UniProtKB/TrEMBL annotation:
Record flagged with keyword Transferase: yes
Entry annotated with the keyword Glycosyltransferase: no
GO cellular component, one term: cytosol
GO biological process: 'de novo' IMP biosynthetic process
Keywords: Hydrolase, Multifunctional enzyme, Purine biosynthesis, Transferase
Listed name of the protein: Unannotated protein
Length: 268
């Protein structure tokens, strides 16, 4: 295991446990190239891998449920650096072990540390770990600022996207559909580029998807990229001095937009 293997495995393990449902997260260079929940762990893996199958090559895969033979068989067809899960169905390890250089890890259920530590020049920064447990992380506390009533399916996708974006480096935009990320724009120095990257990676899947933004839109231009691509609903923290202009763009387009009042602004 290399230094990068350990850091990516840690990021993937945490991302998979951000969700209560069967979930798979695929991490590459500290960013997710796919996160999905499913009826079972094999379904979740298929959906996560489909998000960005090119970037998943050589990635780190984490599952928050026992890895089944079905998932192991699909995973064995892709070059993977590390796989981590709480357990493995009988026969799954044998299937995965046929791949050269794969590291197969077993870990107990994720326990989120209370604090995060980061060394900086001349000292050490300490902060509370983002546990996605603020009042604004609950849909019941979101404020709808545009659009009409949404379906249960759109609500579920918005809730998934909001939890999934926690693991994406800022500036972050995550597009989701049917409990899976379909396009992720991460680590850009402006939100316009992140929106464009998410749309580009989603391709045709952007139509009727939902979007989450880890922080507010400082201008309406980033949101407009999502609107023009076919996104139907957006969740974001709100709080920009130009919120009214952003709300006006969403209202004009007829899309539902929700403010959470909290943000997940990952710079780690």
């Amino acid at each position: 295991m290399s230094f990068n293997n350990f850091t990516d495995a840690d990021a993937a393990w945490r991302a998979a446990w951000d969700h209560n449902e069967p979930c798979v997260a695929i991490i590459k260079h500290a960013n997710p190239c796919g996160v999905a929940i499913g009826e079972n762990i094999a379904d979740a893996y298929a959906k996560a891998h489909a998000c960005d199958s090119i970037s998943a090559f050589g990635g780190v895969v984490a599952a928050n449920r026992e890895i089944s033979v079905e998932m192991a068989t699909a995973l064995s067809e892709i070059f993977t650096e590390v796989v981590i899960a709480p357990s493995y169905e009988s026969g799954a390890i044998e299937i995965l072990s046929k791949k050269p250089s794969i590291r197969i890890l077993k870990a107990s259920e994720y326990v989120r540390p209370e604090l995060e530590l980061r060394p900086v020049l001349g000292g050490l920064l300490i902060q509370s770990t983002d546990a996605i447990d603020a009042s604004g992380d609950s849909f019941s506390n979101w404020k709808q600022v545009s659009g009409g009533e949404i379906s249960d399916a759109i609500r579920a996708d918005l809730e998934f996207a909001w939890r999934a974006i926690r693991s994406v480096k800022s500036n972050a935009i995550l597009l989701a559909k049917d409990g899976a990320s379909v396009g992720i724009g991460m680590g850009q120095v402006n939100r316009v580029d992140s929106a464009g990257l998410a749309v580009a990676r989603a391709g045709d899947r952007v139509k009727n998807s939902v979007a989450a933004s880890d922080a507010f839109f400082p201008f309406a231009d980033g949101l407009q990229i999502l609107i023009d691509a076919g996104v139907t609903a957006v969740v974001q923290p709100g709080g920009s001095v130009r919120d009214e202009a952003v709300i006006a763009a969403a209202t004009k387009a007829g899309i539902a937009m929700f403010f959470t009042g909290v943000r997940h602004f990952s710079h780690a």
